[in-house]
Amino acid sequence: MAAKKGFPGSHQAQPRCQGHQKSRRSLLRPKGKMNTYACFVQTCREELQKSHPGTEVTFAKFSKHCARRWKALSLREKACFQALAQADGRCFTREMRSYDPSMESKAPKRPMSAFLLFCREYRPQLRADHPNLSLVQESRRLGAIWRGLGKKEYQRFANLAACLQDKYHKDVEKYKKRAQKIANARSLGRERVAGKRHREEEVEEEDSDYEDSMDD
């Protein structure tokens, strides 16, 4: 019988080695600005989604399709996407002005997966029973136990992981709103300082003009 999706024994439930773990992505840093060709590819993707909703296209096939269309465009047609790229660059610059890297350290930590929650609970007993195991042997033993878990026990860890994931998403939304408020406040402060300096310069210019008129 084929293994159930997400159940021990299926491909999705297998523990992954550390070398395949995704790097932590910034939650606040604005997305990088797109170049002209990236804007064109995004437009092609949107056209595909509208004309063929739900259709799955391989990345290689889609890339070749975009490359062929791009080569066939005239310079005038490409200028439209160049304008989109310039607009995206200006938007990125504005967003980066309010980006504060120091806020990244306060970001919510990603929750553990069901497998990591299982390891945290089972590892102490495994070490007590087999104190001479190496880290590699320990990981293999835990993986074997994980794949042999009963459905009820597996579901306990899956439910706990789902609850932690839900809490994480809520914490991220709160974190983003708080960071945006701080960024807006700092941006407003910079605008006030700039406005004050501008008024001071205007006053200095008026005083200078008055002094020049008195000299005349």
| N to C succession of SSEs | HHHHHH
C-alpha-based Rg, rounded = 28 Å
CATH class of the largest domain: Mainly Alpha
The backbone outline, from C-alpha atoms, is extended
What is the total number of structural domains?
2
Instruction: Tell me about the largest β-sheet.
Output: none
Helix content: 55-70%
Which runs of at least 5 residues are low in confidence (pLDDT < 50)?
A: 1-23, 189-196
* Strand count: 0
User: Would you identify the CATH architecture of the largest domain?
Assistant: Orthogonal Bundle
The first-to-last residue Cα distance is: 102 Å
The overall average pLDDT, rounded, is 78
Describe it for me?
With 216 residues, the chain is an all-alpha fold. The chain folds into 2 domains: 30-97, DNA Binding (I), subunit A (Orthogonal Bundle); 102-216, Orthogonal Bundle (DNA Binding (I), subunit A), CATH 1.10.30.10. It is built from 6 helices and no strands. The chain has helices at 36-51, 59-72, 75-97, 114-129, 135-147, 151-215. Helix 4 (114-129) packs across helix 5. The chain starts with 35 loop residues before the first helix and ends with a helix. The model is unreliable at 1-23 and 189-196 (pLDDT under 50).
